[in-house]
Specification:
Mean pLDDT of chain A: 78
CATH class of chain B: Mainly Beta
Low-confidence stretches of chain A: 50-59, 134-142, 355-360, 405-414
Oligomer: heterodimer
Largest sheet of chain A: 10 strands, mixed
Mean pLDDT of chain B: 87
Order of helices and strands of chain B: HEEEEEEEEEEEEEEEEEEEEEEEEEH
Largest interface: A-B, 31 and 24 residues
Structural class of chain B: mainly beta
Helix content of chain A: 55-70%
CATH topology of chain B: AttH-like fold
Radius of gyration of chain B: 19 Å
Strand content of chain B: over 45%
Largest sheet of chain B: 13 strands, antiparallel
Chain lengths: 851, 357
């Protein structure tokens, strides 16, 4: 052990001091890799947590949540729940929840979807809540329960400049309602702070404003064991389940977390896997850096060996050095990650909000576990990368080094990295044929992700083989440069591997996004054919609960210039494996306008048939493994109804799945007269923009879009989803290009004597720079070519496997040639420039330079 | 606590109307002399009155003689819009362990709180009290998850109606009155947790529509169950100047055979004794009292000092304690419950009725 410490102190640390710039670069690369991974993890966790915080802050985390299988719970059922619990001291807290939004400022222009913030209106029994004194703010009197009064969080009051008595205007369904701030919710010690987008209202008043008297969305069940009662949580579950009679479902906090988690699992997994790319690239670069270190310290190693230092001590010293690098980089990475997370959390939360519902997260915290995990991942990566160079260092005979004064970098003959690479790629091809992992209705394309990882590694390792293809011709400078590529060192290979991995990922993602974009555009054109689309102004995200009243629909229908109005109704229902959208629509309208792109088209007579059959979207078909002709047991307020699948249509609007019923059937089953979306066809000659402006002016609580604007908005939201993805790809490519420069710098240091000889025979600085640039060019071209080729398959994998298994969406393959070409040119160009600078720097190196 | 509502009745103001009105200005019913009570209907709720409560206190013993004191109270208070809030209290005193626990409940009328209008059937959360067809009252309460009481209460003495001609006058105002029905002695059997207990309880059921008077700040009230079979209900309303309100001071003696005799303020004295300061509210309560009639002396000695009922929700803590009754010689001659309200702040302001500042 003493030997190891001595080597570390006398050799490693001395080299760190002498070559601090390279060490700093290496640390930065590793830290960046770790940081990106940590940032994504924190941002994901934080954004996900935002889903859960709304009621927890009021009631603390409940034992159970009761929800109806379909539609709302009926308030009268609460009596049965209480009766079922008998004398057990269990609190039942009913709640109603809705999304609301501040009205848009009067403007003639069409607004963007999501431009207005989405707030949560939570209706709870403020009288009954007084019984939860431990978790509800202590008050000396019953709270003021004046009409239209709300309590807001401190954060919201601060952000909006509200105080007690302030007037607040919100859009509830299609009405602009004026509320009054009755008080600011205090922060309770040891409880989560109320989120910044919460409006708390007394339950009866919220029901009245939402036109939902007698309905509630859920009941929180709270109990605490004491001296006279134990096992209350379990007892209450049994009793409430016995009384349910299929009317309500019991969700534990594990289920709630799982539900929120499953809704966003695919998206979060995508980001997490993508964030590992930076770490993978960092690992490659660590390997090649340590390989260079071994080469440059060869004489020291030989001397140590001659002095009797054991092989194991030398190996241990190198591993300890790598671990130390990993430790420092890990700590730096945690810091970078935390900083990055603050930026990423907004992007991730915004995307989650747009796709899945309101997430209130604006801040990502780093806890000790995550910090330690970040450091551990970084140290682990360093150790894995250092293992082989350390072994080589320890195993090299001293006499060979001292005698020949040389030690070549380990060559391909020994390593056969290409063979490993090809094997990894073959493994990836095999994994790609496996199906998704299905857990509680959640589909995780685990094998596909593993295939992607193996493919990335394999492509990177195999790409080194391309280096040997470079032929120089007559140009002596180029001949010199390419001679190094024809006998590539491990560092050459790993510089290419890192670049290949980054380019593969970027190409794959670009192919997937382009295919998505292309498919989406076709789908949007096909499905959005009405002249004007109307929704509640509160409908700022996919999960918005804001609806349009039947009276407003009638007013729209009666407007001059309106030829036809089609209404889509919506209700969230819970299938055994998770929530799904139940919708009711005018099927005759859909058929006339040919709105659906079919995966399995229905029979012609279905459109007018009376059988309770429905269309389902592709996501649901994939999730349930159901096809045309199969039966689904659909939860309705009146119990389960068997529904035959008449057809399956492509739908890129949601991944939870949709069951689309005839409008009449939907109204009969769900007793819902409110409209979710309204499509308006205008009479010939009517101007869409004029109609939109008139409708908007008459109904400030509505969002009114022309067809063109809605199509544009749909694409904008879709593209926004990938903003974080682009940032992660960019980090990977930047790290890889930086690694290219680092690898070349390391190689130039090895060639000090060679460079001195070249200078002695007349090699100019310019020529040294050119030689290095050509070498860098070779590396960059190899990485880019291999990366693009591998990226095309990765793109296919993402489209046909990851996407299909995660979301059930069929996408048409599209190769974005110009985009890929631009990236290739940029990377190769940058590689050449970086290499030229390294070459210029190398011409100043002296033979006796120590580092 | 129940006397909070009595105060509503007692302190309506000083105007005396020539004839008794039948309703308050906002339409709630007022107690009318000569009302014929019908049971079990009149054990149930009377939503035409603003305020109503069902109130049980009692002493329990295990087979080994270990003693408990308990209270269970269900209040109903209606708003002018006829929406009722249900407040409830439950307490348990373990005399040997000297532990006193209590819980306060508040729910709006509806699925989690309410009272039948046909018989005694009142509930608040998981607490309930109801009358079965055999005339037995079933009381089930918990105190958080720390205690559970399941009791059967069987009347051991007939129901009495306090007041003249069925109306219990609480002050000078004609509105300051209530219908006041009491079971002065109920035999109890049941369990505290899993332990079998038996004992005796007192139950009041009172309904009225009145408000606090600005001159009154609180009251002292007691129910005594003497070993010789007699029972006593006594209270005095305390004025802001420290004196008693004669119009709100009464002692009612229930003989063993159920006959009733009222004594007004001139016929007895109430002398406060030792005080105890609550570490929670800081209120100073005179937890001992000496009640002296022309013939007898009754000293109330608390079984535990700490018997303050929280007021966590209402903000109105009060002391409601199990006591022994001693005669002038210091001999225990019965058991009692003593209620001391208005010692933890201005009760009138907290309760806040019209005309009360």
């Amino acid at each position: 052990m003493n030997d190891v410490v001595l080597i570390l102190r006398r050799c490693a640390l001395r080299h760190w001091r002498l070559a601090w710039k390279q060490q700093l670069m290496l640390l930065a690369i590793l830290a960046l890799g770790t940081g990106v991974h940590v940032a994504m993890k924190l941002a994901n966790r934080s954004a996900l947590a935002g889903f859960e915080r709304f009621t927890q802050t009021i009631t603390s985390e409940s034992d159970w949540t009761l929800r109806a299988a379909a539609g709302p719970l009926q308030e009268e059922w609460l009596r049965e729940m209480r009766a079922a619990l008998g004398g057990l001291p269990v609190n039942l807290i009913p709640a109603i929840e809705a999304t609301v939004t501040p009205p848009a400022l009067p403007s003639s222009a069409e607004v963007s979807i999501g431009a207005q913030p989405t707030w949560r209106l939570l209706g709870m029994d403020l009288i009954g809540l007084q019984n939860l004194r431990a978790s509800f703010p202590a008050q000396t009197n019953v709270p003021v329960l004046a009409e239209r009064s709300v309590f807001v969080s401190q954060g919201m009051a601060r952000n909006q400049g509200w105080k007690e008595g302030s007037e607040v205007k919100v859009v509830i369904n299609d009405e602009v309602i004026s509320l009054k701030v009755a008080g600011i919710m205090p922060v309770i010690p040891d409880a989560p702070a109320p989120p910044d987008d919460l409006l708390l209202m007394d339950l009866p008043e919220a029901q009245r404003l939402l036109h939902r008297e007698g309905e509630i969305d859920r009941v929180e069940v709270l109990s605490r064991d004491g001296a006279a009662f134990s096992g209350l949580r379990e007892q209450s579950a049994i009793l409430l389940k016995q009384a349910a009679k299929d009317r309500w479902q019991l969700l534990g906090h594990e289920d709630r977390h799982a539900l929120a988690g499953s809704m966003t699992a695919a998206f979060r997994l995508n980001l997490n896997v993508l964030s590992l790319l930076a770490l993978l690239v960092g690992g490659y670069l660590m390997f090649q850096a340590l390989d260079g270190v071994v080469i440059r310290r060869r004489e020291e190693i030989a001397v140590l060996r001659s002095l009797g230092v054991r092989e194991r001590s030398i190996q241990m010293a190198f591993l300890a050095e790598a671990a130390l690098l990993g430790l420092v980089a890990g700590i730096l990475g945690d810091g970078l990650g935390w900083v990055g997370a603050q930026a990423a959390v907004m992007g991730v939360a915004r995307t989650m909000t747009a796709l899945y519902g309101a997430s209130s997260a604006t801040y990502a915290s780093l806890n000790l576990d995550e910090a330690l995990l970040g450091v551990a991942i970084c140290i682990g990566t360093s150790l894995v990368a250092a293992w082989w160079p350390a072994r080589v260092a320890a195993a090299t005979p001293a006499a060979q080094i001292l005698g020949r004064h040389s030690m070549h970098s380990v060559s391909g003959k020994i390593w056969r990295v290409e063979v490993f690479g090809v094997m990894a790629c073959i493994t990836a091809l095999g994994l790609a044929e496996l199906g998704p992992l299905r857990i509680n209705g959640m589909r995780i394309p685990l094998a596909a992700y593993a295939a992607a990882l193996f493919w990335l590694m394999g492509a990177g390792l195999a790409a080194g083989g391309l280096l040997q293809l470079f032929r120089a011709g007559e140009n002596p400078v180029r001949r010199l440069a390419f001679s190094h590529l024809r006998q590539p060192s491990i560092r050459h290979r790993f510089a290419v591997a890192a670049l290949t991995s980054a380019i593969t990922m970027s190409t794959g993602m670009a192919v997937m996004i382009a295919s998505f974009d292309n498919t989406m555009r076709g789908w949007i054109v096909r499905s959005m054919k009405a002249d004007i689309y109307v929704s509640s102004a509160g409908a700022q995200s996919a999960s918005s609960t804001s609806l349009i009243s039947a009276a407003t629909v009638d007013e729209i229908r009666a407007m001059p210039g309106v030829q036809e109005v089609a209404v889509v109704r919506h209700m969230a229902v819970n299938l055994p494996d998770g929530p799904v959208h139940a919708m009711g629509g005018d099927m005759a309208f859909a058929q006339r306008r040919d709105l659906h792109a079919w995966v399995q088209a229905p029979a012609q007579d279905w459109w007018y048939g009376n059988e309770p059959a429905a269309l389902i979207n592709e996501s649901l078909g994939e999730r349930l493994q159901k096809h045309r002709g199969d039966l689904i047991e659909m939860p309705t307020p009146a119990g389960l109804k068997p529904v035959r699948i008449a057809g399956v249509y492509a739908d890129y609007g949601n991944e939870r799945g949709t069951i689309l019923l005839h409008e009449d059937r939907f109204r009969e089953w769900f007793h819902n007269e409110m409209a979710w979306r309204v499509a308006v066809m205008l009479k010939p000659g009517a101007d869409a923009e004029t109609m939109r402006a008139a409708l908007q002016h008459g109904h400030p609580g509505l969002s009114v879009f022309t067809q063109a604007h809605l199509r544009k908005e749909a694409l904008r939201i879709f593209r926004q989803t990938f903003a974080v993805t682009y940032a992660l790809e960019a980090v990977g490519v930047i790290v890889a290009v930086a690694g290219l420069g680092l690898a070349l710098a390391s190689l130039m240091l090895d060639r000090r004597k060679e460079l001195a000889t070249l200078r002695a025979i007349g090699f100019t600085t310019r020529e040294a720079s050119q030689a290095c640039a050509w070498e860098g060019f070779g590396l960059a071209v190899s990485g880019v070519v291999a990366g693009i080729i591998a990226g095309v398959w990765l793109g296919w994998l993402l489209i046909e496997r990851v996407n299909k298994q995660s979301f059930g969406w069929t996408l048409t393959f599209h190769f974005p040639g110009w985009q890929i070409a631009a990236m290739a040119v940029a990377v190769i160009g940058t590689g050449i420039v970086v290499s030229a600078f390294v070459g210029r720097w190398s011409s100043t190196l002296t033979v006796d330079r120590e580092e | 606590m129940k006397r909070i509502v009595q105060t509503l009745v007692l302190c309506l103001g000083t105007a005396v109307l020539a004839q008794s009105p039948s309703t308050t200005s906002d339409g709630f019913a007022l107690p009318q002399p000569g009302r014929v009570f019908s049971f079990p209907r009149d054990h149930g709720s009377h939503p035409e009155f603003r305020t109503e409560w069902w109130y049980v206190t009692g002493h329990l013993e295990e087979a080994n003689g270990e003693r408990f004191g308990f209270q269970a109270t269900f209040f109903r208070q209606a708003s002018p819009a006829r929406q009722s809030l249900y407040l409830a209290h439950a307490t348990l005193l373990d005399v040997k362990k000297k532990t006193f626990i209590n819980e306060e409940r508040l729910n709006r009328e509806g699925w989690d709180a309410g009272a039948s209008t046909t018989t005694l059937d009142v509930h608040n959360g998981n607490w309930s009290m109801n009358l079965d067809k055999d005339g037995v009252i079933h009381l089930n309460t918990t105190i958080r998850s720390d205690a559970k009481l399941s009791l059967k209460l069987t009347p051991a003495q007939p129901l009495v109606v306090f007041g003249k001609d069925g109306v219990s006058k609480k002050g000078t105002s004609p509105e300051a009155a209530s219908h006041y029905l009491t079971f002065p002695r109920l035999d109890c059997t049941g369990t505290v947790g899993e332990v079998a207990v038996s004992g005796q309880a007192w139950m009041d059921h009172e309904f009225s529509s009145s408000q606090l008077d600005r001159n009154q700040v609180g009251w002292d009230w007691a129910s005594l169950q003497l070993n010789d079979g007699r029972c006593i209900m006594v209270y005095r309303m305390r004025l802001r100047d420290g004196g008693n309100d004669p119009a709100g001071t009464t002692l009612a003696m229930v003989e063993k055979d159920g006959s009733l005799k009222h004594t007004d303020a001139a016929g007895f004295t109430w002398k406060p004794g030792r005080t105890w300061t609550s570490p929670v509210s800081g209120a100073v309560y005179p937890i001992e009292a000496e009640i002296r009639t022309q013939d007898e002396v009754f000293k109330l000695a608390p079984l535990n000092e700490a018997q303050e009922v929280g007021g966590a929700i209402s903000g109105l803590p009060y002391w409601e304690g199990a006591c022994d009754v001693l005669n002038g010689n210091g001999k225990v001659i019965g058991r009692a419950f003593l209620e001391l309200a208005g010692y933890a702040g201005d009760l009138a302001r907290h309760l806040g009725g019209a005309g009360v500042k």
